[in-house]
Amino acid sequence: MKISFLPLNGLRTIVLLTFLINFHTIAQPNHPRDPGEAKLIYSDLENFIDAYRELETNADTLKVLQVHYFDRGSAGLEEFIKRHGLTPELLKDALSENPERYALLPGFLEKIDETEAEFRSLMKDYHKIMSDAIFAPTYLLVGANRGIGQASLVGQLITVTRVSDDKVKLQKLITHELSHLQQAITMGGQKYASLYATENNMLDLCLREGGAEFITSLVLGEITQTKALDYLDNHPTRLKKQFLADLEAQNKEFWLWASLEQKSHPQLMGYAMGYRICDHFYDKADDKRMAIQQILMMGDAEAFLQYSGYFD
């Protein structure tokens, strides 16, 4: 893919994504715009703790998980199961392999009032940055210890096993995924869905993730992929050169989800690269409010990259 930068023809039109959903046939979600009405739903966490305690005296792990957790699942858990194929068998294996992570969950639930108060404060802070934001519910779920956070039209789907002892990480994850929903509404469902069906889409995907990271940084002062950002900032020249070469070849392995298994450098470097591009774009903009809308919409990824000046 040769990068031929185009004029900023689409960036001034605001048309207002979530992840792997076909938006072609789904109406705009009827979620509130008042941050005071944002909901933190943790009934699935409560159900899991019921199952967890039942397992102290009941050895039939699969049945206990099925009856107490899966059969009682919220709309958020049902959506998560459809996306990730979570089963009682997978959850049983994760419990056996990572008992220390699941042992933290009862204590996390005991302090859920504190988490709710922090969530309400976070939503108010988010509204200060994104005054037109839509606030879908945030579901706290228990998965197979994979550390998954995703946006959906149902709401933000956040698994808690890897963040139950890190409140800052939990807040960043919620903010990042909520920002993907704003991208979906801003960009429009068909365009967002098309990102996953389009070839040579590495730049679009990195900028989409970078845009969510940028909004997270405005709200919380920090992005989710801090190690990746530190690595980028310490090796900017080499990594800029590699990014452009990989963009030409459409090689996503270093930058996106294929990097989750590698150990030689931080994962998800594309999140950090996308963030830096968005950050430069925002710094150059005279109208900061319009710049945020342009970051969400991302009408023309190549023109956006050019205008950011990050590779100048």
Structure notes:
Strand 3 (149-150) and strand 4 (156-159) form a beta hairpin. The protein has 312 residues and is mostly helical. The chain has two domains: 35-186, no CATH class; 198-308, no CATH class. It has a four-stranded mixed β-sheet with strand order 1-2-4-3. The chain contains 15 helices and four strands.
List the helices and strands and how they pair.
Blueprint: E1 40-41, H1 43-54, H2 61-70, H3 75-84, H4 88-97, H5 99-102, H6 105-110, H7 112-129, E2 138-141, E3 149-150, E4 156-159, H8 167-187, H9 189-194, H10 202-220, H11 226-234, H12 236-249, H13 269-284, H14 288-297, H15 301-308
Parallel strand pairs: 1-2, 2-4
Antiparallel strand pairs: 3-4
Helix pairs in contact: 1-2, 2-4, 7-10, 8-10, 8-14, 10-13, 11-13, 13-14, 13-15
The number of helical runs is: 15
Strand fraction equals under 5%
Briefly note the structural class of the backbone.
mainly alpha
Q: Give the strand order of the largest sheet, numbering strands 1, 2, ... along the chain.
A: 1-2-4-3
> What is the N-to-C order of secondary-structure elements (H for helix, E for strand)?
EHHHHHHHEEEHHHHHHHH
Apparent shape? globular
Q: How confident overall, as mean pLDDT?
A: 89
Query: Based on DSSP secondary structure assignment, what is the total number of beta strands?
Result: 4
Give the N-terminus to C-terminus distance in angstroms: 19 Å
Name the helicity range.
55-70%
Radius of gyration: 20 Å
Question: How many structurally independent domains?
Answer: 2
Question: Strand count, sense and closure of the main sheet?
Answer: 4 strands, mixed
Task: Return residue spans where pLDDT drops below 50 for at least 5 consecutive residues.
Answer: 1-26
